[in-house]
Every structure is written in C-alpha cells, then in structure tokens.
C-alpha cells in the first residue's frame, strides 16, 4: 500500500492512533513474520571530526575522553559476539579518518569470513571506500539522514549539506548494500508535515532499514536545552513506515528505550522487528555517549540469553 503525504499527515494528527498501531502490527506479521533480528553493535571509536548540534561525540566536546579500538580488538569483540549467537555485527564509530579504507576493509573481511553479516555505520565516506568495503564483504550500511529539511540539516551539521548526505545514501544503495537511514523525533520545528517528509524520503531512497529515535539532550552539545523527543510520536512514525513499506527492517531504537522502557517494548507490537544491542567492551562503553544514558554491563552471552527470553515473552522469535 502506498501512503501519500496528506494521508501521513492526517494519520499523525488523528486523535486516536490505535487502528494504525494495530494495522502496523498486522502488516509486520504478514510481511516479515514474527522474527526479531538481534544485531550486536561494536562502537569502535568515539573520535569525530564533525560538530553535530545534537551529538555528544561532537568534536567541540573537550570533556569527553576519546578512544579508538585496535583492529584486532574489534575483530576479537566481533568474534565473541558471533560465538554468543549474534548473526549480524554493526560496526559503528564517529567520523574518524584514522580508520582507512584498508583498515576497515581488513576488519570486514576477517569478520565476514567467520560467517557473520557485517553492517557498517561509519558516516560519510567516498564512493570508492563504500565500493571497496562492499567488495570486502560488507552487506549493510547505516547512515541516517537525520532530517529531511535541508535548512535544518545545515543548521544542525555545520559545514555539511543534506544533498551530500543523500548522495552518499544513493551511492550506498547503488552498490547493493542493504541501506539503512532514519531520523530523529523532536528536532526543532517538528510538525506532522516534517515527519511526513522524513518518511517519504525513506521511501524515495528505497531504504531497506530505518532507525527512528527520539532526540535526547546532551549537556555538552548546542542542543543541551532543547526538549527531548516524544516517545509516542516515535512509535507513530515507526508504525506509519511499517504500513508504507511493510518489508523494511525497523528497530526499536536504543534511544526510545532510554526515554521509556515500556514504549520500547510496545514498539515491537507497533511495527518494529529489530533489536540492537551494544557489545562494545566495558572499558569503552560509557565513552560512546551520543546522548546521556545509564550504562549496564553484562556478559555478552548472558545478555543475549536474556534478550532472547524478552523477545519470546512478547510471543516473538529471536534470531
Ligand atoms: N539524541 C538521540 N539520538 C541521537 N543521535 C545522535 N545524537 C542523538 C541525541 N542527542 C542518533 C543519530 C545518529 C545515531 C547514531 O544516534 O540519529 O545517527
């Protein structure tokens, strides 16, 4: 089913969204079944040369202790997650040129040879780098567009443009990556129209995955005094995307869980079918602070086992 801009806007403005939530759940079941995909995230570097107005890793944040994991450390962490049962690894970092095309390529090769699917999430790089990593075996790439409003994009990302971002996403898609984008809920000037534009952009980019999370203020950013995004609007956006593009992979985002645990759980019955879990080594965990969050550290295996129980308790199948 195609949902047009006006329909998205009127759905978002509807006094009662219950029927859309139900429809999203039914469409999720029909299109992608009851499996919830577990993804292990390794946050391998918190260095970032960008200065995004919302993100705690921004280069102006001098109070943050920076770290970089060695390639061997990333590989052994990936292998541990793999042996704990994860089938997909997401390698995420700030925008950090320390990791060259070859270094990332070698990590991807090493991990894919263990039989795990590798998703990269290392920001804007050249088409040549994206192509090289694809050849090394990377299957998916995550690069959220963050906002479909080009003026707001330029305000939030000094020195960068939405069109550059979209060129990267188009290149990624063309190279045959499963392509992930997404946006934040609660950015300045948000309204039903801007959310509709974000959803339509995902469709236009022909995204295979999308992460929708509420904005959470971080004290070491320009947006420190801006209000956090709504958890209900986040859920509504996820549901509408499921209705618009039933086959997409849609996580219940970590940011949603940080804002509200119940809303996070509920998201799985409102369209979500993916759960992402940090497996970053304990000593780095608290340093990858995009937004303030409580850090809980458990053994990778135990944590995965309890996630599986959680998913089963929702009547779903962990994978
Ligand atoms: N609040 C919520 N989400 C954030 N992100 C970055 N900073 C914040 C914040 N303060 C999200 C962005 C980015 C992803 C890694 O985390 O969408 O793409």
Q: How would you sum up this structure, described in words?
A:
The chain is an alpha/beta fold and 319 residues long. It has a single domain, classed as TIM Barrel (Alpha-Beta Barrel), CATH 3.20.20. The protein is built from 13 helices and nine strands. The chain has helices at residues 5-13, 18-32, 71-83, 101-112, 127-135, 150-156, 162-174, 192-204, 231-244, 254-259, 261-267, 282-285, 300-313; strands at 35-45, 88-93, 117-121, 140-142, 178-185, 209-214, 251-252, 274-278, 317-318. The radius of gyration is 18 Å and the shape is globular. The protein starts with a helix and ends with a strand. The model has no long low-confidence stretch (mean pLDDT 97). The site of 5'-deoxyadenosine (5AD) has 12 residues, from loops.
């Amino acid at each position: 089913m195609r949902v047009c801009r006006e329909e998205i806007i009127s759905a978002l403005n509807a006094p009662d969204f219950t029927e859309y939530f139900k429809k999203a759940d039914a469409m999720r079941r029909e299109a992608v079944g009851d499996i919830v995909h577990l993804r292990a995230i390794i946050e391998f570097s918190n260095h970032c040369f960008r200065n995004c107005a919302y993100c705690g890793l921004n280069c102006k944040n001098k109070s943050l202790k920076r770290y970089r994991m060695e390639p061997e450390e990333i590989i052994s962490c990936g292998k541990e997650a793999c042996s704990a049962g994860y089938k997909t690894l997401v390698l995420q970092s700030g925008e950090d040129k320390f990791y060259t095309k070859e270094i990332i390529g070698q990590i991807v090769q090493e991990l894919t040879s263990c039989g795990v699917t590798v998703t990269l999430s290392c920001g804007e790089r050249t088409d040549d780098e994206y192509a090289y990593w694809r050849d090394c075996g990377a299957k998916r790439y995550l690069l959220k567009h963050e906002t479909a409003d080009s003026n707001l994009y330029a305000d939030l990302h000094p020195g960068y443009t939405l069109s550059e971002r979209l060129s990267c996403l188009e290149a990624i898609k063309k190279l045959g990556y499963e392509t992930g984008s997404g946006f934040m809920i609660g950015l300045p000037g948000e309204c039903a129209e801007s959310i509709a534009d974000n959803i339509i952009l995902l469709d236009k980019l022909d995204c295979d995955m999308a992460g929708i999370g509420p904005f959470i203020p971080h004290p070491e950013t320009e947006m420190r005094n801006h209000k956090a995004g709504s958890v209900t609007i986040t859920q509504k956006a996820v549901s509408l995307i499921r209705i618009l593009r039933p086959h997409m992979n849609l996580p219940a985002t970590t940011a949603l869980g940080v804002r509200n645990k119940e809303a996070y759980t509920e998201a799985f019955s409102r369209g979500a079918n993916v759960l992402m879990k940090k497996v970053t080594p304990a000593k780095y965990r608290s340093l990858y602070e995009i937004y303030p969050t409580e850090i809980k550290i458990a053994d990778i295996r135990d944590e995965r086992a309890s996630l599986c129980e959680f998913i089963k308790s929702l009547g779903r199948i962990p994978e």
